[in-house]
Design a protein that fits this description.
Elements (H helix, E strand, L loop, with lengths): L5 H14 L12 E8 L6 H7 L8 E3 L1 H7 L2 H4 L2 E7 L2 E6 L7 H7 L3 E8 L5 E7 L2 E7 L2 E6 L11 H8 L6 H13 L5 H5 L2 E5 L4
Antiparallel strand pairs: 1-4, 1-5, 2-9, 3-4, 3-9, 5-6, 6-7, 7-8
Length: 207
Protein backbone atom coordinates (compact mmCIF):
# COMPACT_ATOMS: atom_id res chain seq x y z
CA UNK A 1 0.00 0.00 0.00
CA UNK A 2 1.34 3.44 -0.89
CA UNK A 3 1.36 6.02 1.85
CA UNK A 4 1.20 5.31 5.59
CA UNK A 5 1.38 1.80 6.96
CA UNK A 6 -1.17 0.27 9.31
CA UNK A 7 1.40 0.68 12.11
CA UNK A 8 1.65 4.41 11.46
CA UNK A 9 -2.12 4.84 11.56
CA UNK A 10 -2.34 2.79 14.77
CA UNK A 11 0.37 4.97 16.33
CA UNK A 12 -1.87 8.01 15.98
CA UNK A 13 -4.95 6.13 17.14
CA UNK A 14 -3.07 5.37 20.37
CA UNK A 15 -1.80 8.94 20.54
CA UNK A 16 -5.31 10.38 20.37
CA UNK A 17 -6.41 8.02 23.14
CA UNK A 18 -3.49 9.01 25.38
CA UNK A 19 -3.88 12.73 24.73
CA UNK A 20 -7.49 12.60 25.85
CA UNK A 21 -6.18 11.83 29.36
CA UNK A 22 -3.91 14.90 29.54
CA UNK A 23 -6.65 17.42 30.14
CA UNK A 24 -10.40 17.50 30.33
CA UNK A 25 -10.22 20.53 28.04
CA UNK A 26 -7.80 18.99 25.55
CA UNK A 27 -9.45 17.73 22.37
CA UNK A 28 -7.09 17.08 19.52
CA UNK A 29 -10.00 15.74 17.49
CA UNK A 30 -11.64 19.17 17.34
CA UNK A 31 -8.85 21.42 16.09
CA UNK A 32 -5.27 20.77 15.09
CA UNK A 33 -2.78 21.91 12.51
CA UNK A 34 0.55 20.20 11.95
CA UNK A 35 3.05 21.56 9.46
CA UNK A 36 6.52 20.41 8.40
CA UNK A 37 8.77 22.91 6.62
CA UNK A 38 11.98 21.72 4.95
CA UNK A 39 14.25 24.27 3.23
CA UNK A 40 15.80 23.52 -0.15
CA UNK A 41 19.24 24.95 0.58
CA UNK A 42 20.33 26.90 3.67
CA UNK A 43 19.18 25.66 7.08
CA UNK A 44 15.85 27.14 8.12
CA UNK A 45 15.70 28.24 11.75
CA UNK A 46 12.76 28.41 14.12
CA UNK A 47 13.33 32.18 14.37
CA UNK A 48 12.92 32.59 10.60
CA UNK A 49 9.77 30.46 10.65
CA UNK A 50 8.28 32.70 13.35
CA UNK A 51 9.09 35.74 11.21
CA UNK A 52 7.32 34.14 8.26
CA UNK A 53 4.34 33.63 10.54
CA UNK A 54 4.46 37.38 11.24
CA UNK A 55 5.50 36.75 14.82
CA UNK A 56 8.32 38.16 16.94
CA UNK A 57 11.13 35.64 17.59
CA UNK A 58 12.48 37.59 20.58
CA UNK A 59 9.21 36.99 22.44
CA UNK A 60 9.31 33.19 22.14
CA UNK A 61 8.97 31.25 25.37
CA UNK A 62 8.58 27.58 26.23
CA UNK A 63 5.39 25.87 27.33
CA UNK A 64 3.78 22.45 27.37
CA UNK A 65 1.15 22.31 24.60
CA UNK A 66 -1.17 20.29 26.84
CA UNK A 67 -0.98 22.91 29.62
CA UNK A 68 -1.76 25.74 27.22
CA UNK A 69 -4.83 23.96 25.97
CA UNK A 70 -6.21 23.62 29.48
CA UNK A 71 -5.22 27.14 30.59
CA UNK A 72 -6.28 29.25 27.61
CA UNK A 73 -9.58 30.05 26.01
CA UNK A 74 -9.86 29.04 22.34
CA UNK A 75 -9.76 32.68 21.19
CA UNK A 76 -6.29 32.96 22.74
CA UNK A 77 -5.12 29.84 20.92
CA UNK A 78 -6.00 31.00 17.41
CA UNK A 79 -2.56 32.59 16.84
CA UNK A 80 -0.57 30.32 19.20
CA UNK A 81 1.99 27.95 17.70
CA UNK A 82 4.48 25.45 19.09
CA UNK A 83 7.68 24.80 17.17
CA UNK A 84 10.60 22.42 17.12
CA UNK A 85 13.80 22.32 15.08
CA UNK A 86 14.48 18.83 13.77
CA UNK A 87 17.66 18.83 11.73
CA UNK A 88 17.02 20.95 8.67
CA UNK A 89 13.26 20.80 9.18
CA UNK A 90 10.98 22.82 11.44
CA UNK A 91 7.69 21.42 12.69
CA UNK A 92 4.80 23.66 13.72
CA UNK A 93 1.76 22.58 15.73
CA UNK A 94 -1.22 24.81 16.44
CA UNK A 95 -4.77 24.53 17.71
CA UNK A 96 -6.21 27.39 15.68
CA UNK A 97 -6.20 28.49 12.06
CA UNK A 98 -2.90 30.33 11.78
CA UNK A 99 -1.15 27.59 9.80
CA UNK A 100 -4.33 26.51 8.02
CA UNK A 101 -4.41 29.61 5.86
CA UNK A 102 -3.03 29.23 2.35
CA UNK A 103 -1.36 32.64 2.34
CA UNK A 104 0.57 31.77 5.50
CA UNK A 105 1.64 28.38 4.17
CA UNK A 106 2.82 29.96 0.94
CA UNK A 107 5.07 32.29 2.97
CA UNK A 108 6.44 29.32 4.86
CA UNK A 109 7.11 27.63 1.54
CA UNK A 110 9.50 30.24 0.16
CA UNK A 111 12.61 28.29 -0.93
CA UNK A 112 11.18 25.32 0.95
CA UNK A 113 8.77 22.40 0.77
CA UNK A 114 5.77 22.47 3.09
CA UNK A 115 3.43 19.63 4.02
CA UNK A 116 0.55 20.53 6.30
CA UNK A 117 -2.65 19.00 7.66
CA UNK A 118 -5.45 20.88 9.39
CA UNK A 119 -8.93 20.12 10.67
CA UNK A 120 -11.59 22.01 12.59
CA UNK A 121 -14.55 21.01 14.73
CA UNK A 122 -16.92 21.36 11.78
CA UNK A 123 -14.84 18.83 9.78
CA UNK A 124 -13.42 21.51 7.50
CA UNK A 125 -9.95 20.24 6.69
CA UNK A 126 -7.07 20.39 4.25
CA UNK A 127 -3.83 18.66 3.34
CA UNK A 128 -1.35 20.92 1.54
CA UNK A 129 1.78 20.22 -0.48
CA UNK A 130 3.55 23.50 -1.27
CA UNK A 131 6.88 24.01 -3.03
CA UNK A 132 8.60 27.38 -3.39
CA UNK A 133 5.44 29.17 -2.30
CA UNK A 134 3.27 27.44 -4.92
CA UNK A 135 0.35 25.16 -3.96
CA UNK A 136 1.19 21.97 -5.81
CA UNK A 137 -1.60 19.90 -4.26
CA UNK A 138 -4.46 20.77 -1.90
CA UNK A 139 -7.08 18.23 -0.94
CA UNK A 140 -9.98 17.49 1.36
CA UNK A 141 -8.80 14.59 3.52
CA UNK A 142 -12.32 13.22 3.96
CA UNK A 143 -12.85 13.33 0.18
CA UNK A 144 -9.36 12.69 -1.18
CA UNK A 145 -10.51 12.77 -4.80
CA UNK A 146 -11.31 16.47 -4.31
CA UNK A 147 -7.95 18.02 -5.17
CA UNK A 148 -6.65 21.32 -6.45
CA UNK A 149 -3.32 22.96 -7.24
CA UNK A 150 -0.79 23.09 -10.06
CA UNK A 151 -0.43 19.29 -9.92
CA UNK A 152 -3.44 17.71 -8.18
CA UNK A 153 -2.03 14.21 -8.76
CA UNK A 154 1.39 14.86 -7.17
CA UNK A 155 0.47 13.03 -3.94
CA UNK A 156 -1.52 10.20 -5.54
CA UNK A 157 0.99 7.53 -4.52
CA UNK A 158 0.70 8.57 -0.86
CA UNK A 159 -3.08 8.60 -0.43
CA UNK A 160 -4.09 4.94 -0.32
CA UNK A 161 -4.95 5.03 3.39
CA UNK A 162 -7.15 8.11 2.96
CA UNK A 163 -8.89 6.47 -0.02
CA UNK A 164 -9.48 3.29 1.96
CA UNK A 165 -10.92 5.33 4.82
CA UNK A 166 -13.24 7.18 2.42
CA UNK A 167 -14.48 3.87 0.97
CA UNK A 168 -15.42 2.41 4.36
CA UNK A 169 -19.09 2.19 5.28
CA UNK A 170 -18.34 2.45 9.01
CA UNK A 171 -16.57 5.32 10.80
CA UNK A 172 -12.79 5.14 10.78
CA UNK A 173 -9.80 6.98 12.23
CA UNK A 174 -9.99 10.00 9.94
CA UNK A 175 -7.62 12.52 11.54
CA UNK A 176 -5.32 9.78 12.77
CA UNK A 177 -4.98 8.61 9.16
CA UNK A 178 -4.33 12.19 8.08
CA UNK A 179 -1.46 12.50 10.56
CA UNK A 180 -0.05 9.14 9.47
CA UNK A 181 -0.17 10.38 5.88
CA UNK A 182 1.82 13.47 6.82
CA UNK A 183 4.35 11.27 8.60
CA UNK A 184 4.73 9.11 5.49
CA UNK A 185 5.28 12.23 3.38
CA UNK A 186 7.83 13.89 5.67
CA UNK A 187 9.43 11.21 7.83
CA UNK A 188 8.45 13.24 10.91
CA UNK A 189 6.39 11.82 13.78
CA UNK A 190 4.46 13.28 16.70
CA UNK A 191 3.80 11.32 19.87
CA UNK A 192 1.93 12.00 23.13
CA UNK A 193 5.13 12.87 24.98
CA UNK A 194 5.73 15.75 22.56
CA UNK A 195 2.58 17.48 23.84
CA UNK A 196 3.56 16.85 27.46
CA UNK A 197 7.10 18.29 27.11
CA UNK A 198 8.03 22.00 27.01
CA UNK A 199 8.20 23.24 23.41
CA UNK A 200 9.06 26.57 21.89
CA UNK A 201 5.95 28.73 22.00
CA UNK A 202 5.19 31.81 19.90
CA UNK A 203 2.38 34.11 18.84
CA UNK A 204 1.80 34.63 15.13
CA UNK A 205 0.13 37.47 13.24
CA UNK A 206 1.68 40.19 15.37
CA UNK A 207 2.00 42.55 12.38
Amino acid sequence: MAGPTAEQVEHYVRMFEQLSDLSEYFSIEENLSWTVVRPHEARLTVEEVVRRLHGEPNTMTTARPADCISDLEYDHLVDTVFLEQRGDAVIIVGFGTVTAEEETLRRLGQSATVHSVFWAINNFNRLYHIVDGVVVTELDMLRPLDRWGTDPEALTDHLDALHSLHDRSDPGPDWETAMATLESLTGQRLDPDWFARPQLHAKANRR
